[in-house]
Every structure is written in C-alpha cells, then in structure tokens.
Amino acid sequence: MSTALLKPSQHLPAVTGDLNAYIHAVNNLPVLDFEEEQRLAHELRDHDDLQAAQRLIMSQLRFVVHIARGYQGYGLPMADLIQEGNIGLMKAVKRFDPEVGVRLISFAVHWIRAEIHEYVIRNWRIVKVASTKAQRKLFFKLRSSKKRLGWFTQEEVENVANDLGVEPKTVMEMESRLAGQDTPFDAPADADEEEQFSPSSWLEQNDSDPAATAEHADMVEHEHEQLQGALAELDERSRDILRQRWLDENRTTLQELADHYGVSAERIRQLESNAMKKIRRSITVDA
C-alpha cells in the first residue's frame, strides 16, 4: 500500500454526476493502517498539515458511503446523504486526538451520523416530528421496527415501546406523525412560542462528546478483558459460584449453591468472598 502524500492538486472526489462512479472511486482509495493514521493525525494536530488532513479524510470516505446507505429509507438523495456525512467526517478529522489511541473511524462515526441526522430532520416534512429524546429515537428507529405495512396493532405498539424504552402513547403519536407527510415542516410565522424550534436543537446533546464516547467504549472493552482474564485464573468451582451469583440473569442463592455442592451456605459465602478478592487483586495488578 502506497503511503506517499497526496499532491495538493488532488482534491477530494465530488459527490456529483454518476454516483456509482463516485462510490467506485472512494472504494479504491487506500485504507490507512493504524501507525500511518496516527502519524498523519500527529502531523495535522502538531503542524496543521493540510495534506495529512486530506489523506485522513480520503481514507474514510468509503465508510461515509456505508453509513449513508442506512438512511436511504427516508426518500432523500443518496448523494446528499453522503455529502452531509462527508461534512461530519471533516469536522471529526479536525477534532481527532491521536493520543486517545482509537481508530479515526471509531471517533468519526458519531460526527458523520450527527450531520446526516440533522439533514434528514431538516428535510423531513413533518411538523414537530422529534421535539423530545424519545421522539427522536422513535423517528430513526420506528421504520425498522415495523413488521408490515399499515397501522400497528395494540400488541405491536406495546412491543415497539418495550424495545425502544418509551411509553406506548409515544409510539402511537410518532406513527401518526410519520403518516402525515403532507404537513409542512416549517412552523407558520404565527405559531405558538413552543413550536418555534430549529432542527439543530433536536439533535444537540451537550452531554455527549464523541471523543469521550469512544474513550469510554475502549475503557469498557479493556475492563471486560481484565475481568475475563481474572475469571480464567480461578478454579472451576469458584468460577461457577461467581457466575451464578453475579453474572447470570437470575441470581442463585447461597443455599441453592450449598445444596448443589454439598457444603454449608457459609462455605459458599467464603468461597465467593475469596474469589472476589482474587479478581480485585488481579485487576489491580493489570491496571
């Protein structure tokens, strides 16, 4: 794989004309390995190297196409979805910190989706389609939850509500709004104050930072690996006791385990306590 820097005259492919030709072009662009990606990210951060930024962006364009395909069901031009995703990618590259140690696409996916979300909301002709977090979740997931055309039955409403963690009445309200596509998107000039909102306010989440999200995901994965390694060091009986006491969905009582192993409940408690101490020591050493 060639790692030569792109010449300044080599611009980003434009999402115009033949969309298939664009997709073919970006799929033929080289994908950077981790070391090269880190080197370019440092060049951009430390020296404002625009050629490095260009290479980072171009290496991820195929992933933008992949993400944009997931939003084709809203009846919007695929080229526009890709273009909005590319804007999110460029914002992500500008903010990418190589010191975090994650791949660029893991960080950029949040920015790509945010730009596409905003574009979809901005162009979907439904008044007040998603003014709460629950409604935003429904707006982007309700279509994939439908099992057939037509209105939901009461059972389907309850199933969707359980799957998405919302009230059944919220599902019915959103279904009604999705069916009313002829309603104008923009609120009239004399609308009440609560109806005067902008699409950007629907998707803004001040408590959500893509960098922090990516870092948290890596931390969770690391902690999971530590736990699995610590469990592997235990004997089979101790491992089974911890699994049944803490990891299974339906936790087993001390007495049930005592009856199973033919010992006292106090002995099971001691084995459980010793196993927990060993796991804590193992995780502390590995940290």
Describe the 3D structure.
The chain has 287 residues and is mainly alpha-helical. It folds into three domains: 19-123, Four Helix Bundle (Hemerythrin (Met), subunit A) (Up-down Bundle), CATH 1.20.120.1810; 133-184; 210-286, Winged helix-like DNA-binding domain superfamily/Winged helix DNA-binding domain (Arc Repressor Mutant, subunit A, Orthogonal Bundle). It contains 13 helices and no strands. It has helices at residues 19-27, 34-47, 50-69, 78-95, 104-123, 133-145, 154-164, 168-179, 199-203, 210-232, 236-247, 254-261, 265-286. The protein is flat, with a radius of gyration of 26 Å.
Order of H and E elements = HHHHHHHHHHHHH
Unreliable residue runs: 1-10, 125-129, 180-191, 193-204
Looking at CATH, which topology of the largest domain would you report?
Four Helix Bundle (Hemerythrin (Met), subunit A)
CATH class of the largest domain: Mainly Alpha
Task: Kindly report the average pLDDT value.
Answer: 75
Radius of gyration, Cα only, in angstroms? 26 Å
How many helices? 13
Coarse shape: flat
Largest sheet: none
**Approximate helicity band:** 55-70%
- Secondary-structure arrangement, i.e. CATH architecture of the largest domain: Up-down Bundle
Number of strands: 0
Structural class estimated from helices and strands:
mainly alpha
**Number of separate structural domains:** 3
Distance between the termini: 36 Å
Strand fraction equals under 5%
Brief write-up:
The protein is mostly helical and 287 residues long. It has 13 helices and no strands. It has helices at 19-27, 34-47, 50-69, 78-95, 104-123, 133-145, 154-164, 168-179, 199-203, 210-232, 236-247, 254-261, 265-286.
